[in-house]
Design a protein that fits this description.
About 20% of the residues are buried. The longest helix has 13 residues. With about 90 residues, the protein is an alpha+beta fold. It is about 25% helix and about 35% strand.
Length: about 90
């Protein structure tokens, strides 16, 4: 999980002067994040409708993906907010 965090370069994301999640700086073509539809510069705002308020919740995001759990990911790309449903295979 820590390796994935370093690989994508997850950085804090602030909106209107408040912490609002984290931004994915780099998504490689073979990354799991790319496969689920996320891109470089997307901001992850919530996991399963729980807003990401601190670093530990950002870490939990990557753990849930690594564990293959069903996850709803709320993210912001440019000026649009969307949700991806990640379902284990």
């Amino acid at each position: 999980v820590d390796e994935l965090i370093l690989e994508v370069g997850a950085l804090p994301y602030n909106r209107f002067g408040k912490h609002a999640g984290f931004r994915i700086e780099s998504v490689s073509n073979d990354s799991i994040l790319k496969k689920i539809g996320l891109r470089s510069r997307d901001a992850i705002l919530a996991i399963n409708d729980i807003p990401i308020k601190d670093e530990s919740q950002a870490h939990a995001f990557f753990e849930k993906i690594a564990e293959g759990e069903k996850v709803y990911i709320k993210y912001r790309r440019r000026a649009r907010t969307s949700t991806i449903e990640l379902v284990p295979i």
